[in-house]
Specification:
Strand content: under 5%
Oligomer: single chain
Radius of gyration: 43 Å
């Protein structure tokens, strides 16, 4: 467009020179001369005005030219303040977000067919995710993920967490099925190992007991007593041994939370477990499985949407569509989250804009603003040329009439 504006100015100059040469031949040529002369003046004036915004015309240091480069710091501060005042105010964002129905948009994205807007969005987003995953170094990224998980596990002190979980389980009697299972396992183990008990009694009995066969009687009585003990424990929730076991569990829960020695031992066991090569291998496999799953979904989003994941997502979308209360909750959450980001990071965003513009050199800010305004600057020059020509034509016409 710059060439069009410059070409139009040169064309008016050529027309002016030609009209001056032929002005004496025909009276109407005077009108052409007046139009082209005024058009040149208007075009040159607007060229000067447009150029003076961004640079010195013809490289001459004329006062009040190159306005944008000379004032780029002030422009950056003003732009940042404009963003802060008109866009990053929590109240402004809150009012704007009240008119945005995020939940409905999510529901449509989840429930639209492949040829709809939701399908196009899924395709574009999936392609981007696949390109990002394929472009990253799998080994380095896997090492980063594994190191991050391991670091997070090291930061967490697991003993108090286990102690609180155990305490809550005991308070709500959720340990009872585990005790019952342990008692049943003990009963099965006793039945399966009766021969070992009989052999132990036979070996430790005296020769007289073995000769009289009383060792067998002792073994029978011992096994019967153990069977009765296990059965009583299974039938009676208030059995003394069960209560003793619960007391031990309660004590362990307290030690895990408040005993420094127990917590230190648990932390040492955790560190050994994390450093174990088997654990590292498991983390590697976990990352590879997650990455492979993400790539499968990203490469074939419609296939993923056709499976169980798709059914689940469509159910979520249908729930959002049918449950206005849930939709309002999601919209309220999104609105508060965005308003919170604006309140917490608005000043940082403003500072980033201001410092970024300050960091640009004169050539950078000139080229970027020129590209942003673009064709309109050249239309100013074109309009100035045409309007100037029309004004010159009108003035010449008035002179002729007078």
């Amino acid at each position: 467009m710059r060439r069009v504006a410059g070409g139009l100015l040169l064309a008016m100059a050529a027309v002016f020179l030609a009209s001056r040469h032929f002005a004496s031949l025909h009276p109407w040529v005077r009108f052409v001369q007046a139009f082209s002369e005024a058009a040149m003046v208007g075009g040159l004036a607007d060229w000067f005005a447009v150029t003076a915004l961004f640079r010195h015309p013809l490289g001459l240091p004329i006062p009040h030219t190159a306005i944008v480069p000379r004032n780029k710091d002030r422009i950056g501060d003003t732009l940042a303040q404009f963003l802060r005042t008109n866009f990053l105010q929590p109240a402004v964002i809150g009012r704007r977000m009240r008119r945005v129905d995020v939940a409905t948009a999510i529901a449509r994205w989840l429930t639209d067919p492949a040829e709809g807007a939701g399908g196009r969005f899924r395709q574009g987003a999936s392609k981007l995710v696949a390109q990002v995953l394929e472009g990253l170094d799998p080994q380095r990224l896997g090492s980063m993920v594994k190191a991050g998980i391991a670091a997070r596990l090291r930061e967490i002190e697991v003993a108090p967490v286990l102690g609180r979980m155990m305490k809550a389980a005991l308070a709500e009697q959720r340990h009872a099925p585990l005790l019952d299972a342990a008692i049943r396992w003990g009963a099965k183990a006793l039945t399966a190992n009766e021969h070992l008990i009989r052999q132990m009694v036979h070996e430790r009995a005296g020769s007289i007991l073995r000769w009289t066969g009383l060792d067998e009687t002792v073994a029978d009585r011992l096994i019967a007593g153990l069977d009765k003990l296990v059965a009583d424990m299974a039938d009676d929730p208030r059995h003394p041994l069960r209560l003793k076991a619960e007391e031990g569990l309660d004590r362990l829960a307290w030690d895990l939370q408040f005993d420094a020695d127990v917590r230190a031992r648990v932390e040492a066991m955790k560190a050994e477990l994390i450093a174990n090569p088997a654990m590292q291998h498991w983390l590697d496999g976990l990352w590879e499985a997650a990455r492979a799953g993400l790539l499968r979904v990203a490469r074939d989003p419609e296939g993923a949407m056709a499976g169980q994941l798709g059914d689940m997502l469509r159910q979520i979308g249908g729930t959002l569509t049918q449950d206005p209360r849930l939709a309002r909750t999601i919209n309220r959450f999104v609105r508060r989250a965005i308003v919170g980001v604006a309140a917490d990071y608005g000043d940082g965003i403003v500072r980033l804009v201001s410092e970024t513009v300050r960091g640009w050199d004169a050539r950078t800010i000139t080229s970027r603003l020129e590209n942003a305004v673009g064709r309109d600057l050249q239309y100013i020059r074109i309009n100035g040329t045409l309007v100037g020509g029309l004004v010159g034509l009108a003035i010449h016409g008035v002179d002729v009439l007078l």
